Amino acid sequence: MRTNKRSVIRLLEQIAVYLELKGENHFKIAAYRRAASALEADGRDLSEISRFTDIPNIGKTTASVIEEFVETGRSTLLEQLKDEVPKGLVPLMQIQGLGARKISRLYRELGITDADSLRKACEEGKVERLKGFGKMTQSNILHALDQLSGKPAYTIGRLLPVLLLIEETLSGNRKIETYSRAGSIRRFEERIEELDYVISTFDPKSVAEDILQMNEVVEAVSIRSLKVTAKLKGEAGLRINFRIAKPDLYALTLILSTGPDAHLEKMQQIAGLHGERLTQSGVKILKTGELLRFPSEASFYHHYGLPYIPPEIRADGSEVETYKGTPFVQLDDIKGDLHMHTVWSDGKDSLEDMVNACRKRGYEYIAITDHSKYLKVAGGLSRERLIRQMNEIRRLNEKYPDILILSGIEMDILPDGTLDFDDDVLSGLDFVIASIHSGFGNSRAQIMKRLHSALFNPHVDMIAHPTGRLIGKRQGYDVDLDLLFQWAKETGTILELSGDPARLDLSAARAREAQAAGVKIAINTDAHATAELGNIAFGVGTARKGWIERKNVVNTYTKEQLLDFLKQKHQH
Ligand SMILES: [Zn+2]
Ligand SMILES: [Zn+2]
């Protein structure tokens, strides 16, 4: 039985969570948490540790739990706890703002044992009456429960390989004039429930038959006039719709297939005011029965005196009134990526490979931001290795004068609120990211204390993935975003919009609030390999969905503007 250190740390953390759920005493719980951190902070491999009790903060009891696990791969204590604590409580840990301690109270005080009983208690108003919970918490819980019960989280990132396969086939078909993604993928929704494409061709019948031949990707196809519906192979029956239109109906079909319903209802109302009606075969002038067609989506919106409404912001219909045509940030505007990892920590590619991949993308500048020492499991950099990396970056800057490589770090904000490096180390770096990767169960006050120490440190330039969420998997830590935005504005600290499709953090809605609060944003990839640098497109799509303008995105700045901006922050 080979046990790695990560799994031992996870075991200790799991035991702490179960003890907390069970309502055990505070000291007992803290002992396991402390042991987990102690083990994480100890640089050695499991095989190099002869006696666990020699490590500070690991006591006799904890050591025997670790030893049993290392020897047998099992833990009697954890198994016993799992028997005692209702299984249904564990998934509730994903609900933001709940945490083991509150869940334990729900269990002991209201007899809640799973998501269903929690929902019932919320609906009956029992949760808001508990001390320390309140109306807001109750409504947040209900909202989170809706998300938890959802279908598997298909993200654009996860579906991308399949999309590219489909698009390669469509691009290769000479009968197809043009085609576009539509529906939720075109709107950059976080969760994709169906895939939609619109295809323009003079020969719809024959193109529909060609789609039937794409049997590597799709199955169980049905054709109904101009709509081909299929299921995606191997993706739990995810539906994919191809709508086929003659070129003169393509733009309108694209609008109708992009949706969403509420946006189309609003447009239908506006058409009604003009004595017109949107139909599948054109915009019908009610008086005469004449059908209008449009050469482009823009000409459709202009017909009603509206600016072209970008698909990413089409939503509940209110955008039709509020959008005044402001251009949003575009992929071409991005001049560099300020968050990426190399083999110096947990990246897969060498520093030089990452640099060359970014040169190929035409970037003016990048920041190399490997993990800091606290993240042992990710090979975080010690001070000495960081200095060696800075020398390597200096050498590469000389070798490649066409790109500016900033020496950076993704530094952990530690659970106790201190930062992983001292100011004398940070002051030598060009770009400092601060991140939370641990202690997700912290109270809101503790999370804010940790963020405060990062934002108010003059060397910290950016907070990465500010909420810590993983779409469909983890809600993130309990952060007061309004206060975070206020501090970011006050200190000139950048907040990240991570294009990592598993994160998209800040989300579109939160990024929009950040922009409104006067916060500067950077759209990055957090790439751990050259192949992931392309995720910048997901970041930009999400930013557009959040109405983000180019001027508020620091990595659209020229090299000189960016360096100026960073210099100002450091003088704060
Ligand atoms: Zn990170
Ligand atoms: Zn990172």
Keywords:
4 domains; 572 residues; Beta Polymerase, domain 2; single chain; 7-stranded parallel β-sheet; binds zinc ion; globular; alpha/beta; Beta Polymerase, domain 3; DNA polymerase, domain 1
Task: Describe the overall structure.
By secondary structure, the protein is α/β, with parallel strands linked by helices. It has four domains: 5-148, DNA polymerase, domain 1; 151-246, Beta Polymerase, domain 2 (2-Layer Sandwich), CATH 3.30.460; 259-325, Beta Polymerase, domain 3 (2-Layer Sandwich), CATH 3.30.210; 331-570, TIM Barrel, CATH 3.20.20. Helices cover 42% and strands 13% of the residues. It contains 22 helices and 15 strands. The strands form three sheets. It has a seven-stranded parallel β-sheet with strand order 9-10-11-12-13-14-15. A five-stranded mixed β-sheet has the order 1-2-5-4-3, sandwiched between helices. A three-stranded antiparallel β-sheet has the order 6-7-8. Strand 3 and strand 4 form a beta hairpin. Helix 1 runs parallel beside helix 4 (76-84), helix 6 packs across helix 7 (134-148) and helix 18 runs parallel beside helix 19 (481-491). The longest helix is centred in the first third of the chain and has 18 residues, at 5-22. The N and C termini lie far apart (54 Å). The relative contact order is 0.07. The mean pLDDT is 92. One zinc ion binds next to loops.
